[in-house]
Amino acid sequence: MNLLKNFALSLVGATLVVGLWALVSTTISKDLPSPIKTWTESKVYILQPFDKRGEMDQGILRMAAYSLYRVAKGFLLAILIGTPLGFLLGNSLLLSKMFDPVIQILRPISPLAWLPLGLILFRQSEPAALFTIALCSMWPTVINTMQGVRSIPQDYLNVATVLRLSPWRRFTKVLLPATLPYMFTGYRLSLGLAWLVIVAAEMLTGTPGVGGFLWQEYNSLIYSHILLCILTIGLVGFALDRLMGIAETRLRAA
Amino acid sequence: MTRIELKNANKSYGTRQVLANINLAVQEGEFVSIVGASGSGKTTLLKMAAGMIQPDSGAALSNGEALNGFPHRASIVFQNYSLLPWLSSLENVILAVESGFPEWTATRHQEQAERYLQMVGLGKAMAKRPSQLSGGMRQRVAIARAFAVEPEILFLDEPFGALDALTRQTLQQELAQLCQLRKPAATALMITNSVDEAILLSDRILTLGRNGNRGESPAATLSDGVDVPFPRPRPADLMTGSEDAVRIRARLTGFLSSGVRRRAPVSHLQSVSVPLEA
Description:
By secondary structure, chain A is mainly alpha-helical. In chain A, 83% of the residues lie in helices and 2% in strands. The model of chain A has no long low-confidence stretch (mean pLDDT 87). Chain B is built from nine helices and eleven strands. At the A-B interface, helix 7 and helix 8 of A face strand 6 and helix 2 of B.
């Protein structure tokens, strides 16, 4: 019952925003396609979501899948580097004092700034995009893992001590499970960031995907497709966050 | 053989000296308790005797040899259970058995863990996680974990401190029986704030307080021991049934409060008065 009510309320909210969009498109900005125009011009992408008509003319879910695949690679790279780094920094006060300022400086750098550097380094758009995604999205993983390691209750460490666990068993049986919820919070934030970065990366490298498509359609002056891309990006990002959220709750309950 | 030994041990935290000149020797098979008010440094003393922290000066020994970390074939029961929340009760005990008997097979590890959980009456709660258990049941798991490694030395850090009076009484009895199970009996060092608990379980009781021979020293020192001559295990109604027990209690309570009365205002007395349940 409550769930139904919440759903109805969010429908009302969405309708209001679409109404505002329609209003703006008919009054303030005539260049902005109205919701109806957006639908009629985009429905071929939505109704045949996996069609491939050309390199940059593909169904929207197919485009989203390209982007998701790229994000998955970049995100994997981010957590593969970020998690051990977080453990290292969480375990060593010396290292964390050395690198914390560096991390704080690297963290706020925009993907738009990293990408050219990636292109210089790798001379190809795909690895440059992965480099950018990984570099931008790994910080929440690093910071949360570090925090998780630092906040392991002394009780659990005492257990490891009195059971005389070997370093490896101490890691797998105590440190890792105790840090897991924190790590997952980091992963969730990192995935959100990775998805945020993908659009910028694809726009600049011109690779097929939601972001690449968006930029191409802007250059071709088909504005309704920009809105289609924006909505897709939002919905996919939302779905990703929900999935990670579910995984995270399961983990915490366990 | 002296299983647990502290020689002229001192410990300070920063500039504050917590323990001064501690000498303690627990012989094989002996059950010794240390009674003291909260904040008197009991836990520090126990951790030193267990090799978990180093004394600033003096030494912690076992069988005459200096301790290097927590000793082999030893167990500890903490006041706050210290079970790993992501493991079931059975897995918690198995983890200890694996560490205690690395040469055993996995099946044998599990059998041993199950046997000890059944002994503390948790045969039906083996698959449950600590969060699904009551405080008393959690401490039972912790006790099963401690005994499942068949320890020669047992450290008990206020093992019943977080439990209600009734559960406390039951678990005291169970612990007393488990201690008798093994021949030769495990050597045990328990710290507690309950004089009655100490009398019920131990062969010898020492008090820890800022009184006694060092007079004005702010650091806690250990009193001479009081022997408890009754055979173990003892009935739960020992304190009401035996005049000797009552006399021992009076003596220990006297030890505990004399130092405090000299040093602290009367209002402070209540926080160190000894609980009289059991």
